[in-house]
Structure formats: structure tokens, C-alpha cells
Amino acid sequence: MEWLSGNTNPDRKGELSAVQKLMGSHEKHTDDDIMDEEAGRARIQMAKDSKARKAREAAELKKKNAEMKARLAAQRQIARTDDNLDDEEAGRMRHELAKRSKERKAREAAALSKSNSKVFMAIAKTDNKEDDDIMDEHAGKMLIAMAAASVVRMEKEATDLKEKNKVASSRLKSMKPKVDMAAFPEKSRQKYADNDGWVDPYVFQSKFAEDPTRRHPDDPPAPSWLSRHEKYGWSVDPPEARPYTAKVA
Known about the structure:
Number of helices: 8
Order of helices and strands: HHHHHHHH
Oligomer: single chain
Keywords: Coiled coil
């Protein structure tokens, strides 16, 4: 429009302005209303006809339902199936059986309650104790038999060991070692003679055998096994026997 106003005859600019104002005052939209046309008027008439038809159909259905209910009510009064057995022999027998069943169940419930009471009383009086004694069973009898056999076996082994020790001790005492007592003091030689030439090998080994590990009374504390030797007087050399030999480091 600006291009048109710039290229228009100046004498007609006033007319063009009036036209522009007139065009700007109208809204541009699509005409989607058909009610002012033949199709819209036909739609309104069809809606009225449909509403009237539905009303007639509803009235007819209501009338038919009322007639059906009346007919069914009349038929129930005229013809009805007799489904009541209480006025017949089967109905009376059914009532009698139900009564007997109820009485029987009551008696059974009372008997069960009485029996349960006795059981519960017996349980309450019973001490709950676990049977941890197997001596009255086969395993317990076997245990006793094995213990007796073990005692007999150990006694026999002890007797055999005692006999062996006695034989070994007798053999040791019967040994007559030949020892040159010239290097020993008079006291030791006298003891050797008093014992009929018998010398205890253990005492001899502890006191007189060559042992570079023999301790002196002034040495530091000894291990436990040497302390036992000192307890029995085995670790101190007689001064007459031999000179003190220092422990070699």
C-alpha cells in the first residue's frame, strides 16, 4: 500500500486514503457458520424430529415394560412351582436329620473337650526332661565294656612295664665296670670299694666324665636342665678330682 500511495496521481490521494480506511475497518475471517444457509436450517429441523422420535420410543418402551410386569405378576399368581418341601415328608425328615446332627456334634465336641482336658493335665504334670543318659542303651553298654577292657589292658601294660624295668635295673646293677680309680680322690676310691666295684653310670657321667660344658658355681644362671643337675650336686666338680675347665665359647 505504501508503494501504491507513492505512485498514485496526487489528485486522487484523498480517494485512496478513504478506501484504505474502509478496508482497515473490516476483519478478515472465514465464514464457517451454516445456520444462515439451507443446510443449517435443515440440520435444525432434523434435530427437532430426532428428539420427538426418541420421546415417542421411550414412551412406547415404558408402556411395554409396564404391560410385561403386569403379565408376569398375573402368571405368578396363577401358576407357580412348588419348591417348599417343609410341608411334605421329605421336608419333615430333613428337619429331623438336622436336629439329630446338631445333637451328635454337640456330644462329640463335649467328649473332645473332656479328652483334651485330660491330655493337657497329663502334659502339665509331666516333667520336660531330655534323656541324656546312654547307659541304658546299646551305646552305653558298649562304652562300659570298652572302659573295662581298657582298664584291663592298661593294668597289663603297667605290669609288663614294671617287669621290664625290674629286669633292666637288675641288669644295670649286675654290671661290674672296671674303672681306674687311681685318678680319683680317696673318698671316691673308698666308696668304689664299699660298693664292690660298682659305680652308678649316671652319677659317674655327671661328675667325672670329660664335659667342656660343665659349669662353675660362679657362672651366670644356668638353663633349667643344668639347674636340675645343680640341685642334685652333679654340676660341681670335686676339687680333688680335676681342675676347673672353663666353658669354651
